[in-house]
Design brief:
Structural class of chain A: alpha+beta
Radius of gyration of chain A: 17 Å
CATH architecture of the largest domain in chain A: Up-down Bundle
Oligomer: homodimer
CATH class of the largest domain in chain A: Mainly Alpha
CATH topology of the largest domain in chain A: Glutathione S-transferase Yfyf (Class Pi), Chain A, domain 2
Number of helices of chain A: 7
Order of helices and strands of chain A: EHEHEEHHHHH
Largest interface: A-B, 31 and 31 residues
Strand content of chain A: 5-15%
Number of domains of chain A: 2
Chain lengths: 218, 218
């Protein structure tokens, strides 16, 4: 398995297409990959590994002073950070963004919810369990992540009990933002079998034409 | 001092104008108040105090299942949560939102940055110091907030060293989102005198026509 559209692995790549800097195992970076694939965009994917300090080099800090992936650079040099801002830019004008003004605001609501009430618990629990192998000094933090993360999953499951997607009647960036870490929440110790509506929604997303799975073997 | 447009203090208010549920001392709620005032909108402001459990009642959870203020309800009953989604809805089509597609994405970038890399440190330090009076069991968390919050302020100060506002050449929702907790960061132990460009930007925001200050005496 490989990232289909990746044609360069360094900071230069092809000058005429946009570059996305990220690590596919990161849910935040996966959002950008999935959105780009669903939209059939052309891009260079440049893998940077945070755990190896690759997001703290002077070269990368010139792209994103906050030292985080994902980040995007357009062919003319303009740069953008924050996963949910990048996917909003990439999907502008597409079927992944509701045209109705209120539904658009609801989409943003779920994207901000994701960054504030979901990622800090569900992604962090996954990091502690899946990447760090449960160091004792992070046990208390992990336990808090379980409580808060399960509350978030309950809220999501309840919301999905009466509708197929988070906003309106079709998939939007709200689903992509929430799918990224939810579908691998088991890697953080969350039991998705307790959330049947989330499980159905995950299958619905995975059955979308052009869906691209998170990759684990690069 | 009072909230100029607040004409109701219960869950009912006037049926024909939108309701905003919030607590003005909360920076997240203040964003909504400031945006509504800058735009000259009509609304009922209903004060709910999180510390008194007022955001965990069945009545409020029916408005925002996540149990957080701010939340907004339109006259027709549609409801919206998340401060940055609410201000995006309120300001749609106004001068507070860039028309250029890339500048719009940059605005979102700073709003997501605010919720992920700013609020969790700068607002939390303020809460621990200003509202909780520094309980010993939160000292370690407070110290982490100082390190991370100062890094965020340094990044903001550097960004503002070459431009008057976060995006483009005029005030946008990115400024409102970041202003809310930054201008009271001293209440969380941050020394703003170290960040002269942030100080100039705060004065610039405060000098905006129709600017409304955070209220502390309600």
């Amino acid at each position: 398995m490989q990232i289909s559209r990746s044609v360069a692995r360094d900071f230069f790549g092809a000058a005429h297409i946009m570059k996305i800097y990220g690590h596919i195992k990161s849910g935040n970076c996966y959002k950008v990959y999935l959105t780009a694939e669903l939209l059939g965009l052309r891009y260079d994917w440049i893998t940077l590994d945070n755990s190896k300090g690759e997001t703290q080099t002077a070269k990368f800090l010139a792209i994103n002073p906050n030292g985080k992936v994902p980040a995007m650079v357009l062919p003319d040099g303009r740069r953008l950070a924050e996963s949910n801002a990048i996917i909003a830019f990439l999907a502008d004008g597409s079927h992944l963004i509701p045209q109705d003004r209120f539904e658009y605001a609801q989409m943003l609501q779920w994207m901000f919810f994701e960054q504030y009430s979901h990622e800090p618990y569900i992604a962090v629990a996954r990091f502690i369990q899946f990447y760090q192998n449960m160091p004792a000094e992070r046990q208390a933090e992990y336990d808090t992540c379980q409580i808060k993360g399960n509350a978030t999953l309950r809220l999501m499951d309840h919301h999905l009990s009466t509708r197929p997607y988070f906003v309106g009647t079709s998939m939007s960036l709200a689903d992509i933002a929430l799918f990224a870490y939810t579908h691998v929440a088991d890697q953080g110790g969350f039991d998705l079998s307790q959330f049947p509506h989330i499980q159905d929604w995950i299958k619905r997303i995975q059955a979308t034409p052009k869906f691209a799975p998170m990759l684990f073997d690069d």
